[in-house]
Specification:
Elements (H helix, E strand, L loop, with lengths): L1 H24 L11 H19 L8 E8 L4 E6 L11 H13 L4 E8 L2 E2 L4 E3 L2 E5 L7 H13 L4 E2 L3 E4 L9 H4 L21 E8 L5 E6 L5 E6 L69 E7 L5 E7 L5 E8 L3 H15 L3 E2 L3 E3 L7 E9 H11 L2 H14 L6 H15 L23 H13 L3 H5 L3 E2 L20 E7 L2 E9 L5 E9 L3 H17 L18 H4 L7
Parallel strand pairs: 5-7, 6-8, 7-15, 8-16, 11-13
Antiparallel strand pairs: 1-2, 1-21, 3-6, 3-17, 4-5, 9-10, 9-14, 12-13, 18-19, 19-20, 20-21
Helix pairs in contact: 2-12, 3-7, 3-8, 3-9, 4-6, 7-8, 8-9
């Protein structure tokens, strides 16, 4: 019995030993260490050190910078540097103008263009009265949109209009020059008139072409009753015909080697597109590529002069010739956009078979006019062009739309300046003595600090229209003005932001998500001579934020040498 009991105990012990050995050989599942409060603090210190390196580097030694980063999840500041120092924000001003319109009109805000009448529609389809086209600032209005309205009018059974086609652009005040109403009296970027009713972004394309005979034809795009064209061009020389058979061929001339030097003032002959310098963040007008086999020296220039006749019609006098079998286009701002738009509308009405007995004119719509039709553009589409592409022309329309939304149609710009500050108060954003003189940021007298920009971004995030608003911002390495930035980094397809660029000004403000999924709002505003370097520093800062995790400190490379912190605060004047 005793020996049997011993054998049982030995068997049990062997089983236990074998089991333990087998368990020891099995691979263990990896469990990452739980980050402690010390780890989180160390990671945050590492991030702040990295940002200090960036914003005290060489480009900032003779410049001023205002920076703030805020955690929207924990509602605490992550990083600050001169966060309440007001600087020129450039195009990040557009954050304030577009947010003001959203705050005044709410989610699903629209920009409308209406058609009304003061007449009576008879049984035979005759409208005895005038037709009014009323604008409310839709600077994206196109010929197709006017075609849509013309179809709506025709669908009402209207076949003839005995009165006039009237353009009403009186939702805005009469001062349409940004340089004047901003108080700058400086055309940083020449813009077409900022008015409530316009088409084709207030620009007319004068298109000249010549066939084989060299005869020049000119048309305006869009076509409008408000445009008149006078051609003062000599017929271009026809191209030489192919040599007849039987005649001796002339010796071919040796091909001239193409010069590597670009000829000063030379132009592509396919289209003449007046280049527009890049101001703010708006890209220049696309340039037409020169066709192969065409010599630049063979491109005769055309000139177009514009004047406004006593009846309001804009007359274009075309001189010169594009050359045989060639064409050229010159872009000119509409002198009377509301009248020109009424002329395009009249053209579309007639194109749909509606007879018009009257003429086009520009005046206010009477109070008793009846509604007929409306074109509604979602404001998110409008704001996306403003914020993603940084379109200054559209941004100034938003600025005037803000003033008009407050009920002021006689001093719209003045009211808009006040309204943008009132919106900050309604959102409980600390102003910090900021000021706005326009809606695009072309004004150098605009003043904003990073704390105010981040305060606005924080409050936008809380609004019901906040998600829609965020969709209007440019996406890093994907679209808009930052589509070529931050590629191959955690900030790519992550950062959503508005850029700002002027001479001696660079800014970037928006949102970024960390590796832990924490959403941050940030603003970097730099004033100084190293704009190109500022852009690079903004990229590095955005990438540092996107890479941040409380579980692991941000690596600190030695490629940026820090400078003493007090050197940034010593700069008191902006460098021009």
């Amino acid at each position: 019995m005793k020996s049997s009991s011993i054998r049982v105990h030995i068997a049990v012990l062997c089983t236990i030993v074998i089991t333990i050995g087998a368990m020891a050989q099995q691979p263990r599942s990896y469990r990452p260490p739980i980050p402690t409060q010390y780890d989180s603090s160390q990671a945050l210190t590492s991030l702040r050190t990295r940002l200090d390196q960036i914003f005290t580097s060489a480009p900032y030694r003779s410049s001023r910078v205002s920076v703030m980063v805020w955690s929207l999840k924990r509602n605490v500041p992550v990083y600050e540097r001169n966060s309440r120092q007001n600087l020129t924000p450039a195009s990040t001003t557009k954050l304030f103008s577009t947010a003001a319109y959203y705050q005044l009109n709410g989610q699903n805000a629209i920009v409308s263009t209406e058609v009304k009448t003061d007449g009576v529609l008879e049984a035979d389809g005759t409208l005895r009265g005038n037709l009014y086209l009323i604008g409310h600032g839709d600077a994206l209005l196109s010929v197709n949109d006017l075609e849509f309205l013309a179809d709506k009018v025709r669908a009402l059974g209207i076949k003839r209009i005995t009165g006039n086609i009237v353009g009403d652009g009186y939702a805005f005040d009469g001062q349409s020059n940004r340089a004047v109403y901003s108080g700058d009296y400086e055309d940083v970027q020449p813009l077409p008139p900022i008015v409530a009713l316009s088409v084709n972004k207030g620009t007319v394309a004068v298109f000249a072409s010549a066939g084989k005979t060299g005869r020049v034809n000119v048309q305006t795009i869009p076509a409008s009753d408000a445009f008149d064209v006078v051609i003062r061009t000599a017929a271009a020389r026809p191209q030489p015909k192919a040599q007849a058979k039987g005649k001796p061929k002339a010796k071919p001339k040796a091909k001239a080697k193409p010069s590597k030097k670009k000829k000063k003032g030379s132009r592509a002959d396919a289209n003449i597109d007046e280049s527009i310098d890049r101001y703010g963040d708006a890209p220049p007008e696309p340039r037409q590529r020169r066709r192969k086999g065409r010599s630049r020296s063979r491109a005769p220039r055309i000139s177009v002069t514009s004047s406004t006749l006593p009846n309001g019609v804009q007359q274009f006098v075309v001189s010169g010739s594009p050359g045989a079998n060639r064409s050229a286009t010159v872009y000119i701002a509409m002198s009377k956009p509301a009248l020109a738009t009424a002329g395009v509308f009249a053209n579309r009405l007639r194109g749909g078979g509606i007879e018009i007995d009257g003429r086009i004119e520009e005046r206010r719509t009477p109070a008793n006019a009846r509604f007929l039709a409306q074109f509604r553009r979602p404001f998110v589409d409008f704001a996306s062009v403003v914020n993603k592409r940084s379109d200054n022309y559209l941004a100034e329309h938003v600025f005037k739309m803000v003033g008009a939304a407050c009920g002021d149609h006689s001093t719209t710009a003045v009211r808009a300046k006040r309204a943008m500050l009132e919106v900050l108060d309604s959102l409980r954003v600390e102003r910090n003595n900021c000021s706005f003189n326009d809606g695009s940021g072309l004004s150098r007298r605009n003043l904003v600090c990073a704390a105010t920009e981040v305060g606005l971004l924080r409050q936008i995030h809380k609004q019901e229209w906040g998600q829609e608003y965020r969709s209007t911002l440019a996406v890093g390495a994907y679209d808009g003005t930052i589509r070529r930035r931050m590629h191959g980094s955690p900030a790519a397809n992550n950062v959503t932001a508005k850029t700002g660029t002027l001479r001696n000004v660079s800014a970037l403000a928006g949102y970024v998500t960390t590796r832990d999924g924490e959403l941050l709002a940030f603003s970097f505003i730099s004033n100084g001579p190293s704009v190109g370097s500022f852009k690079g520093m903004e990229n590095l800062a955005a990438m540092a934020l996107a890479s941040f995790s409380y579980k692991q400190p941000v690596p600190i490379p030695q490629d940026i040498l820090p400078t003493p912190a007090d050197t940034v605060d010593e700069i008191t004047t902006d460098s021009e």
